Amino acid sequence: MTSSAPLTKLFVLDTNVLMHDPSCLFRFEEHDIYLPMVTLEELDNNKKGLTEVARNARQASRYMEEIVGTDLSNLELGCPLNINNNKQVSGRLFMQTTQVQTELPGLAGSKADNQIIGVVLSLKKQQPQRQVILVSKDINIRIKARAMGVPAEDYFNDKVLEDSDLLYSGIKELPKDFWETHSKEMESWQEAGRMFYRISGPLVKAFVLNEFVFYEFDKPFHALVRDISGNTAVLEVVQDHANAKHSVWGITARNREQNFALNLLMDPEIDFVTLLGQAGTGKTLLTLAAALTQTLDKKLYSEIIMTRVTVPVGEDIGFLPGTEEEKMAPWMGALEDNLDVLNKTDEEAGEWGRAATQDLIRTRIKVKSLNFMRGRTFLHKFLIIDEAQNLTPKQMKTLITRAGPGTKVVCLGNIGQIDTPYLTEGSSGLTYVVDRFKGWKHNGHVTLTRGERSRLADFAAETL
Prior knowledge:
This protein is an alpha/beta fold. It is about 30% helix and about 20% strand. It folds into 3 domains: about 140 residues, Rossmann fold; about 70 residues, Beta Barrel (Elongation Factor Tu (Ef-tu), domain 3); about 200 residues, P-loop containing nucleotide triphosphate hydrolases (Rossmann fold, 3-Layer(aba) Sandwich), CATH 3.40.50.300.
């Protein structure tokens, strides 16, 4: 086997990388890729079924067929990865064609992970002048590899951020001298009952479209950045949903972030909202209150569709009895809890009135499984994707592209609570959409920080 250039690296891929992102074969630019026989075996074992993993395994096999083509005689020389005029990729794909015998002290040789480490050690001996690196999403094999003196790293290409603390929060605090430096040529006006300010100054360049800004000194000021051109920005004063007069389905905002979130959820111009926050910050409650108000009172949407990832039993809900709605019921406890709260807000209705409202609400809220979303188009719907941190960027794209005209999509999640193997805070689909949609004029994002459940829940969150 000959190296295409002395400086390029040789990356040995673990199966989980291919099953996580089949297009990883085209993500290593000028470097070469090597696939051990065990990887191909494991890929073959995982290709059956309707799960995301099986789909990815099949897609990886299709890509490999495109790269290798029909001529299997040149596997030892490597097959060029730059198929379909893909100019950025100049490396080659190598497959294992010979049996490798490498002693692995302390490791059972027949285990798949250990066979892959053996292949990497063998390649290092064959090509001492070149960097041979194992790429895997599994931390255990990376630790074992490093213990054996094999360089190993995670697959970083789909990571949006190295550090989730750097993720866009959707909110910016203004400094104390803000008005001194930005009110020189300030204009203000009212339009359709809303107050607007046009300001210019040095901070404007750091603003993002639809970002909330707040000033908490002598005269508190909360606003949304509606427009940016050069070093001039238009700020719209937000509606105060903490005031009972502006309550949404009987719910009032309990803190600044909740007020910002309600402003986004109630804005018909904003088609895509992401709300991040820990348990108890009010994500689901605020979203349902806004959805019910706009579906039942304002008639902006025809129905509410709620979906979430059914992680505990993998992808399949088939073993549970009943219809799709009934099968999803065990995962929708959060929906039931929040509907109980929302139904209590109408004090004057009495028992009968509340029961009637509850029945009406139930007819307008549909619970769907993610498995049946492909090929659908939602028109004039309010689509809520709960537990969105467990989605991969690809699943997220599949879901959001279902939105037809007049549909609003709201993604809720807590990136500190990921239940899916191989997804991290940096590579979750939720992190991905927050980062990619930032600055689009029909998108809004808020990170909720304060828990509003009870003093017990707040104390537990801090101390346990």
